[in-house]
Design goal:
This protein is an all-beta fold and 366 residues long. Helix content is 1%, strand content 42%. The chain binds calcium ion (2 copies). One calcium ion (CA) binds next to loops.
């Protein structure tokens, strides 16, 4: 399908830029994430049940790269939620997976590739991080290396509704946070000395940012030094945040605020909170699926634009930073229930739908 952009009210004329979606693979089972090791042309797709699949030279390989379905409790918001390849994967072969275990608790484990580059060594498993989950939902689940070489881990508020345990604002717990750990030092990791709450009484040193409800995807812009966090709303507002990646200790507001509104009250005190650069209501969707700042070559005119979607909306939208969320566009697609976006090693973007299809964003041929 090919679609020209329509202008969102307040945005400029999108002009002649057009986008198309190209089917890369079909038949995947709940594809939740797509990534690749640095410089590696293969695509690694996470299936919710507990498999990592490889797409190589345009073909979906039959044998999974990793199959930990026997360790994973999957369904609803649970499952194998992401994989991250170490920046030095080409030499050390390390990959990190985030999943809910058979008890429904969050685990971050490290594996190593085997002598076959298309198969991970399941026996190499090493536990890195554990977080008990009080409820089935809001498990966060993205693990990602930042431009600083640190490993960032997103955890939701633990679940239920309204954050009944108050985890989002509690800096003494890992839930409702973005964590930052050093997996190249310590065992199983070291806490970076420049994390914002190192040495602060009652706070966990792993915390980089807090006040998150269920960050369903965050991303570092490959250029420009910004960190984008999409946080799923309770029942009214979905949000995208953007802040300098080097600034720790930001409070993204949950459960004082839901998106750009006070949560549960008509008034609240937003001082000290980092408010979203963009929010939308449930007339437009139900659960944000955050994406990436485009830095690929297929559609040069869209470099620097952040792309995102929504589980119910099925659309693909974008904006770029510039005095807020500038140049907002709706690309007009209907991609079904969008589970995640993905980015390959060259910076090209992908959309993963619950219909089992992986789409690549390309320029519409003239
Ligand atoms: Ca949970
Ligand atoms: Ca927020």
């Amino acid at each position: 399908m090919a679609c020209a952009a329509s202008s969102v009210p307040g945005g400029p004329d999108p002009g002649s830029v057009t986008l198309d979606t190209q089917v890369v693979a079909t038949g995947l089972s709940n594809p939740l994430y797509l990534t690749a090791p640095p410089g590696d042309p293969r695509l690694f797709v996470v299936e919710q049940a507990g498999r990592v699949r490889i797409i190589a030279n345009g073909a979906l390989l039959t044998t999974p790269f990793l199959d930990i379905t026997d360790r994973v409790l999957a369904g609803g918001e649970r499952g194998l939620l992401s994989v991250a390849f170490h920046p030095n994967y080409a030499t050390n072969g390390y990959l990190f997976v985030d999943y809910t275990d058979l008890s429904g608790d969050t685990r971050l484990d490290r594996f190593r590739v085997s002598t076959d580059p298309n198969v991970a060594d399941k026996a190499s498993a090493k536990a890195i991080l554990f977080a008990e989950q009080p409820y089935a939902n809001h498990n966060g689940g993205l693990v990602l290396f930042g431009p600083d070489g640190m490993l960032y881990v997103a955890l939701g508020d633990g679940g239920s509704g309204g954050d009944p345990q108050g985890n989002g604002q509690d800096r003494g717990v890992l839930l409702g946070k973005l964590l930052r750990v050093d997996v190249d030092n310590g065992d199983p990791y070291a806490i970076p000395a420049d994390n914002p709450y190192v040495g602060v009484s009652g706070a966990r040193g792993e915390i980089w940012a807090y006040g998150l409800r269920n960050p369903w995807r965050f991303a570092f812009d490959r250029e420009g030094g910004m960190l984008y966090i999409a946080d799923v709303g309770q029942s009214r507002r979905e949000e995208v945040n953007a802040a300098p990646a080097a600034t720790g200790g930001l409070n993204y507001g949950w459960n004082v605020m839901e998106g750009d509104e006070c949560y549960g009250t008509s008034t609240c005190d937003p001082s000290g909170l980092t408010l979203p650069v963009l929010a939308y209501g449930h007339a437009d969707g139900c659960s944000i699926t955050g994406g990436y700042v485009y830095r690929g070559q297929a559609v040069p005119a869209l470099q620097g634009h952040y792309f995102y979607s929504d589980y119910c909306g099925g659309w693909l939208r974008s904006f770029r930073l510039g005095g807020g969320a500038a140049d907002q566009r709706d690309w007009g697609f209907d991609l079904g229930n969008v589970l995640s976006l993905g980015e390959d090693s060259a910076g090209e973007l992908y959309v993963l739908s619950a219909n089992g299809t992986v789409y690549r964003l390309v320029d519409r041929a003239p």
